[in-house]
Every structure is written in structure tokens, then in C-alpha cells.
Amino acid sequence: MWFRNLLVYRLTQDLPLTEDGLNEALAQKPARAPGSQELSTYGFIPALGKHSDALAHASGDFFLVAARKEERMLPTSVVRDAVKEKVDEIEARDHRKVYKKERDQLKDEITQTLLPRAFIRRSSTFAAIAPKQGWVLVDASSAKRAEDLLSALRDAIGSLPVRPLSVKIAPAATFTQWVSEQAASHDFYIRDECELRDSHEDGGIIRAKRQDLAAEEIQQHLAAGKQVTQLSLAWQDKLSFVLDDKLTIKRLRFEDLLQDQAAEDGGDDAAAQMDASFTLMMLTFKDCLPQLFEALGGEEIPSGI
């Protein structure tokens, strides 16, 4: 239940939601297996998995949703080899050249023939909706993966006015200052990992892991003009993560203190355990994320919004 990555989206309008209303909307777009001629499908699955049939799970003011993509995996090499075999057969039989237009047609025909036999790969994505905070939080490190879920959610509920959250000061400038001064702010502290990039377009990249970022070699790179574009941070001894200059949070780790509390709150019931973990995770985000955005210079609100 604990998110491993995080992309934060800002709701630009109020989003009135109820648990029943959200479940009814998501039921219009359930996950399903692809048909024999479909490459992929996308739909919603129960947020608590096998422990509840409800597609959306509510805890206080927070909602948890989950979506699943099912796609037929047809390796391009298999299609390419089949097309080549067919082209060779035609050219040998008819003593003529097979040109691009016919090759493309053969490729389409062969793909449709092979699709029903392709194996299906499934991948799930979770998201939390916090209407009072104005957030949609997606457990993904890829904007494309997050947008797939947001698009499906938008189709299901009819409207989802969101934009990626941004801050007023370039994150790389803040990271660089923190590492240079060896001090973050707002209850955050620097850990032992960063990425340094040269400001020139074709400049070098240096990645440091399990490294004292106060070390002279790191400070020399900063003095030479490199900027910190990715930095590992911790907050209040409750969670740690790696944050990049696009505000993508990766490798989220909720410390044992929180996980033990969730285990105690949830008891022996699996669904209650998941609910307790989700609730505690969201309450932690509720406290941590505003401090993070403030530490990075404050949230930027585009004009006209």
C-alpha cells in the first residue's frame, strides 16, 4: 500500500467527490482483458485488491484508486522475421520485388494473425485523490504512466482539471545551494546521494551514491559550475526519497516507525491493514508535501488560474 514513487498534480478547480459516486463512475470503465485483435486495454480494479470489491477506497477525506493496463506483447523481431519470410516467399514465387506499400500491408496482416497468440502483460498504477488539499498523487515515476491513469480517471468521472505541480524557484538551484551549504530547510536533511550536471548542453553528468556530499570532491564540482539535479532527502525521520529537478519523487521509503504504527492500527485483518497504511501515508503526505513545496520556494500558480 505504501507508494514507492510520487508525481504530484494540482487540482485547478474544486472536485466534489463521494465514495459512492466515485465507485459508480469507475464502474463504467473496469479493467478487462484485450480482445483477440486489441493491443491493449486500460481500466480500474479494486483499490484494495482481493480484500474488497470496491473500485475506490475512502479514508477520511482521501480516496485511493487503482488502474490496470493489459497489453499484448508481440515482439517486433517476431513480426519482422515473419514479414521477411513472407516477402522472400512472394519474391521467389512471383519473380518480382515487394515494395514498401505491400510490405506494410503484409506487416499489418501478419500482426493481426499473431495478436491472438501473444501473451498479455499486466501492470497496475495507484493514485490518491485529496480534494481538500487539491492534490492527485500518482504512484509513478513516469509522466506517461501517470497521464494514462489521469486520462482514464477523467473519462470515468467526466472532468479532472489538473496540472503538474510546479514551484517558483528552479529546483536545481535550491538543491545546489543546499549541498553547497550542507543544510536543507523545513525539517528536511540531505542524505548521501546526488546527481551533478554541467550547465552546458553537452556537459558531463556525475552520480554520487553512498557519498558524503560535504566531501571536497563534491564541493569542487559545484565550484566548477555543476548543478545538483537530483538529491536524496529525508524528512523528520519518517520518510526518505530521491527528488529530481522535475519534482519527481522516487524510491520513497516510509521508515519503520510509520510502518509499525500502521501494523498496530490495522490489527490482523488484511483490509484494515491496507486502510491503516493508506491513511497514515496520506496524513504523512499532508504534513510533508506543503513543507517540501515551501522549502523549494513556494508553489507556482500560473496566471489565469
TrEMBL record:
Gene Ontology process terms (BP): DNA recombination; regulation of DNA recombination
Predominant cellular place of this UniProt entry's protein: cytoplasm
Keywords associated with the record: Cytoplasm, DNA recombination
Subcellular location: Cytoplasm, Nucleoid
Molecular-function annotations in GO: double-stranded DNA binding
InterPro entries, per database record: RdgC
Record's signal peptide: none
Top-level taxonomic group: Bacteria
GO cellular component, one term: bacterial nucleoid
Role noted for this protein: May be involved in recombination.
Family to which this protein belongs: Belongs to the RdgC family.
PANTHER family: RECOMBINATION-ASSOCIATED PROTEIN RDGC
Protein name: Recombination-associated protein RdgC
Higher taxonomy: Bacteria, Pseudomonadati, Pseudomonadota, Gammaproteobacteria, Pseudomonadales
